[in-house]
Recover the amino acids of this structure.
């Protein structure tokens, strides 16, 4: 629902879960802190600025971060992850850059995957409504030769048409070399003036994962068995974007994170009770619904892609139904 919130379709609180209340209702303790490392011998978890805690079993779900972000240092850049703080960080950037009425606001989104596209389309809707006397322009810059390369050709063609109709320029086969005060410099020598750069390139593991001493895949995610337990044979599971099942080619998507929860819940209890663990079998494909910010969504499933108003209604119904049990 984050893109829909950017478009002004939902209030931010409509897409949020009150973790404090949820934890209390589940009989769990919620600690807000930055995990910095773990001592497997002592079974102790360390935080940046709170006391360490001991554990018997652990599940890691620290998600992912956009690739290459560690090499780009500029206050102009707003990484899309962590998503939980994206709206706040974007607002801080806009506070510094919104021009006077009659001026121009130029935004460059780095990354032409579905996340970058949804953000471009929805942000444009929201800003054009909010900033009626400012000329807002958004461009997407991608190193690939086309956008949304994970989608089949008909869906990609539809998205290219939607972007063109909305006036969002797509610059392909272009890799960023540097972000400066005035904008984005590309490896081919071209420059793109930008007041704000949104970083939405493919996902890699957050830095903390490399400090845990666990076996990792080639993008730095924690390698697990199909039971979601680390291949290191420690009492530790890795779920959501943070974990990769050996041999699995599933993309990093919330759909898998959600479907893993009942397996994780079963296996955590089974591990502690010395009982057999069960396997997670990821589904091969899933329906994708992209909010295009114009009251419609693009539905893509197997060979079918449809861009329509009812697809947005379906998406919103699914999203709200998912949230309901967590809004205790
Ligand atoms: C714009 C956008 C739209 C998307 N739309 C969809 C969609 O429609 N469908 C879909 O299936 N997927 C979608 N995705 C992908 C989806 O968001 C992720 O796959 C999903 O959030 C992964 O869930 P997760 O729980 O593994 O990680 P996250 O949701 O990223 O959560 C990770 C958590 O770990 C915390 N954390 C990180 N490091 C530390 C640390 N050192 N110490 C303590 N805590 C830490 C973070 O603060 C965060 O709370 C979208 C992604 C983007 C960017």
């Amino acid at each position: 629902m984050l893109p829909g919130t950017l478009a002004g379709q939902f209030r931010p609180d409509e897409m949020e879960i009150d973790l404090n209340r949820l934890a209390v209702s589940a009989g769990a303790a919620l600690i807000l802190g930055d995990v910095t490392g773990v001592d497997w011998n002592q079974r102790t978890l360390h935080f940046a600025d709170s006391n360490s805690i001991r554990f018997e079993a652990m599940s890691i779900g620290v998600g992912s971060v956009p690739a290459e972000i560690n090499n780009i240092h500029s206050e102009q850049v707003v990484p899309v992850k962590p998503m939980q703080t994206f709206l706040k960080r974007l607002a801080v950037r806009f506070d510094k850059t919104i021009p006077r009425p009659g001026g121009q606001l130029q935004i460059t989104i780095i990354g032409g995957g579905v996340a970058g596209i949804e953000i471009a389309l929805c942000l444009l809707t929201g800003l054009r409504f909010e900033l009626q006397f400012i000329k807002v322009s958004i461009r997407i810059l991608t190193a690939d030769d086309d956008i949304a390369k994970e989608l089949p050709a008909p869906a990609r063609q539809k998205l290219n048409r939607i972007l063109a109709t909305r006036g969002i320029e797509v610059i392909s086969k272009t890799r960023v070399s540097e972000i400066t005060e005035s904008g984005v410099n590309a490896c081919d020598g071209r420059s793109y003036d930008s007041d704000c750069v949104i970083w939405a390139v493919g996902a890699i593991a957050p830095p903390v994962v490399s400090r845990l001493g666990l076996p990792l895949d080639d993008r730095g995610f924690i390698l697990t068995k199909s039971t979601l337990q680390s291949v290191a044979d420690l009492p530790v599971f890795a779920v959501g974007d943070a974990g990769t099942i050996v041999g699995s080619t599933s993309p990093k998507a919330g759909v898998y994170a959600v479907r893993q929860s009942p397996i994780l819940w079963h296996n955590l209890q089974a591990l502690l009770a010395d009982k057999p663990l069960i396997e997670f079998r990821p589904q091969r494909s899933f329906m994708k619904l992209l909010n295009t910010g114009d009251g419609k969504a693009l539905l893509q499933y197997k060979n079918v892609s449809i861009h329509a108003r009812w697809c947005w209604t379906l998406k919103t119904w699914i999203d709200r139904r998912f949230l309901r049990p967590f809004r205790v």
Q: What stands out?
A: The first helix runs from residue 2 to 6. The chain has seven helices and 20 strands. The two ends are 19 Å apart (CA to CA).
